[in-house]
Write a structure and sequence with these properties.
There is one protein chain. The chain is an alpha+beta fold and 102 residues long. It has one domain. It contains 2 helices and 5 strands, in the order ββαβαββ. A 5-stranded mixed sheet has the order 2-1-3-4-5. 16% of the residues are buried.
Length: 102
Amino acid sequence: MDAWVLWCRLRIVDSGGRPVATHELTGPGVPDLHIVGRIARLALRAKRAGGWVELSAPAPGLCELLALAGSRVDVQGKVEFGEEPFGVDQRQEELHPTDGPV
């Protein structure tokens, strides 16, 4: 069984930039998609209240998982993931001859 390690510190900030809560997110071994979902739920709740979340001390691999999931979270005061993750932009889907009518 893996030892529990710190995956990140998470701070929930209100619309005025004041911290309202802090959490240390821990788990066994390396971060997984479960923690990404947990961070996303906290970020959504904070956003609905007009605030945001900030992460600090992310474990190796956590930022990559957040990017893979398309999460837009402040990491150590810098927005790590922009409006369109991975440089994906919105374009029309390509039409193929075998596609049905549009």
